[in-house]
């Protein structure tokens, strides 16, 4: 109602002029305070709510508002006192306990507050609130007043109740480190990475903690750590995951891209240095295993280094062209490292930890080859594209494969190109001083690559394995299929538990979700993303390849709504509303929300799939035929209504893509 302080001041003067006593005015204070609070006038809000409390001491909400006003004015002590009184009036405010726990954890000086005793007694006595902040505060307070084994026992009991809670695992590891139990922390990390590796695979916080534990262990066991096979596998894997997840997190929000670049560079430096140490030490491994292990991480280092260079803001800088050329050399090396393959007769020599990581490493190496190969081929014009003068050609860096290879050869002809690369990647003075112990600058295999680009067929051979890596991520699945020539033949096994399809497509309840719904959704998203990338490539002024490594463009793969729908579908039972709305779009039910051109391309993809699989069961063929007819009829209806095929302007919200032009 009121948007400025002046408006509220005038309203309050008018209202209070009609009141006779101060008591009546004070009783109106809470209502007035809320008005000031809404427009950000916190001192005024604090004044009026304090006046209200002076005559009305049994309103928990008023004390809570007072606490908020104090917090927003950085008056932490006063805020804690107000929150305490609010809880003393009404003890059933678990969200307030969570809020206070976050305040106390935000600064250790808060834990010396004169008001701490109340909060300490509260969180230690009441175990009904299971929020992470409350639990962490409980552990922190217990560690100050109890013996270490008591705190550890409490955390272990909580873990038994919630074994997949990564924050509890992290708390236990930090407890071990605080009590200097480094060897115990190392054994725990090793055990969890073997038993629960898949659960925490995408948790940056987990791998930050694992890397901290292993780094501490390395400093403690300086002589034996580098020769410990399990330690080396764990440490190399943790550093590599840290880099990947930081790069991925950096891309998640387009508005803050670049925020994690320095952290990525720091961890990449650690991986580069440790890989050099690892390659210099004679570990008790069969030659084939050791070669494959080093080869795998060499490829990952090259891919992540190239991704990091593409993330750096070199625009308008003289280093830009040098960075792009260095990235292309790195990507060719990353591709030529190939996928991880351990011969069967060597498996007995594989470290126990490595055996459990092997499946993931094989999928990651395939995905690395897919990213590197596609980026390289997208840097030059394809012969078929050059034969179409009527189409607007993309502004790609190189005219053909020969020119690209010539530039790579020219780059590698400079014997100091890797030293220049090192200085592009690592800017710190202490890092520059370690150039002599860098794997990137000393590895003979990285001097120059084999001057041969992969073929499209060779790259597509990695699609199936790459798709297995992260079925829960729509961004990942779209990227894997981004350049597939036969989208209808792409295998997808992420939703095998669902029925293939159903006859009644009018019923869009979440329980009717099926494989063909999922695959149709994926086709639609891929079709949209392809077109948007094609358009951006045609307008490309930067000299970058048309497709970059995954972490550089994952935020372009789909919208937030699409990603949320996919995640909800993956969990099946967690978000029926999102699934229900998306199913109506996918089955062309209700109001039209898909562009006609997208529907036509989906129909063609399903038709290609129908014609390419003659051994399909008759029921599955019928389902496919029904879907083809459904999308074609829908497209015809929409083209009659909207001749240009567009349903609504760009930027409109929908669970399914509709921005294809």
Automatic annotation (TrEMBL):
Domain of life: Eukaryota
Gene3D superfamilies: Tetratricopeptide repeat domain (1.25.40.10)
Record-given protein name: Uncharacterized protein
Native species: Phlebotomus papatasi (Sandfly)
């Amino acid at each position: 109602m009121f948007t400025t302080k002046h408006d509220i001041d005038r309203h309050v003067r008018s209202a209070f002029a009609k009141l006779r006593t101060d008591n009546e005015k004070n009783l109106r204070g809470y209502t007035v305070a809320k008005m000031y609070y809404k427009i950000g006038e916190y001192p005024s809000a604090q004044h009026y709510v304090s006046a209200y409390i002076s005559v009305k001491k049994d309103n928990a909400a008023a004390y809570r508002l007072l606490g908020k006003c104090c917090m927003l004015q950085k008056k932490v002590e006063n805020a804690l006192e107000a929150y305490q009184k609010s809880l003393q009036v009404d003890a059933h405010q678990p969200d307030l306990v969570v809020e206070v726990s976050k305040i106390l954890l935000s600064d250790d000086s808060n834990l010396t507050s004169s008001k701490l005793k109340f909060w300490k007694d509260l969180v230690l006595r009441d175990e009904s609130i299971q929020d992470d902040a409350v639990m962490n505060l409980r552990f922190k307070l217990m560690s100050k007043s109890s013996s270490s084994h008591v705190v550890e026992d409490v955390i272990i009991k909580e873990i038994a109740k919630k074994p997949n809670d990564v924050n509890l695992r992290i708390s236990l590891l930090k407890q071990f480190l605080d009590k200097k139990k480094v060897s115990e922390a190392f054994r725990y990390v090793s055990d969890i990475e073997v038993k629960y590796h898949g659960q925490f695979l995408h948790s940056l916080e987990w791998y930050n903690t694992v890397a901290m534990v292993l780094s501490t262990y390395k400093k403690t066991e300086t002589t034996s750590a580098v020769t410990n096979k399990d330690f080396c596998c764990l440490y190399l894997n943790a550093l590599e995951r840290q880099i990947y997840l930081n790069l991925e997190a950096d891309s998640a929000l387009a508005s803050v891209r670049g925020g994690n670049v320095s952290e990525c560079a720091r961890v990449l430096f650690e991986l580069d240095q440790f890989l050099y140490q690892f390659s210099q030490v004679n570990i008790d491994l069969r030659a084939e295993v050791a070669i494959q292990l080093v080869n795998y991480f060499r490829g990952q280092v090259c891919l992540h280094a190239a991704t990091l260079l593409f993330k750096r803001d070199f625009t308008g800088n003289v280093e830009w062209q040098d960075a792009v050329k260095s990235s292309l050399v790195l990507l060719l090396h990353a591709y030529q490292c190939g996928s991880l393959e351990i011969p069967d007769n060597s498996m007995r020599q594989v470290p126990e930890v490595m055996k459990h990581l092997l499946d993931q490493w094989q999928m990651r190496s395939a995905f690395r080859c897919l990213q590197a190969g596609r980026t390289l081929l997208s840097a030059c014009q394809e012969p078929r594209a050059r034969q179409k003068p009527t189409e607007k050609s993309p502004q790609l860096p190189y005219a053909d494969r020969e020119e690209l290879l010539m530039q790579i050869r020219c780059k590698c002809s400079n014997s100091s190109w890797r030293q220049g690369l090192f200085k592009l990647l690592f800017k710190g003075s202490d890092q520059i001083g370690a150039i002599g112990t860098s794997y990137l600058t000393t590895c003979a295999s990285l001097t120059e690559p084999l001057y041969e680009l992969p073929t499209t067929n060779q790259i597509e051979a990695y699609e199936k394995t790459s798709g297995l890596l992260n079925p829960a991520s729509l961004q990942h699945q779209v990227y894997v299929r981004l350049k597939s020539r036969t989208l209808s033949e792409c295998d997808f096994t992420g939703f095998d538990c669902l029925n293939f399809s159903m006859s009644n497509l009018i019923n869009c309840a979440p329980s009717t979700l099926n494989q063909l719904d999922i695959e149709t959704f994926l086709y639609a998203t891929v079709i949209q993303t392809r077109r948007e990338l094609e358009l951006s490539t045609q307008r490309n002024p930067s000299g970058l390849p048309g497709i970059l490594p995954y972490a550089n463009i994952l935020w372009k793969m789909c919208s937030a709504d699409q990603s949320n729908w996919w995640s909800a579908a993956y969990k099946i039972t967690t978000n029926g509303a999102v699934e229900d709305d998306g199913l109506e779009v996918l089955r062309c039910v209700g109001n039209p929300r898909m562009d006609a051109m997208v529907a036509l391309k989906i129909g063609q993809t399903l038709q290609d799939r129908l014609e390419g699989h003659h051994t399909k069961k008759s029921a599955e063929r019928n389902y496919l035929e029904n879907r083809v007819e459904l999308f074609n009829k829908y497209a015809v209806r929409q083209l009659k209504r909207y001749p240009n095929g567009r349903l609504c302007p760009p930027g409109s919200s929908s669970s399914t893509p509709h921005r294809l032009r």
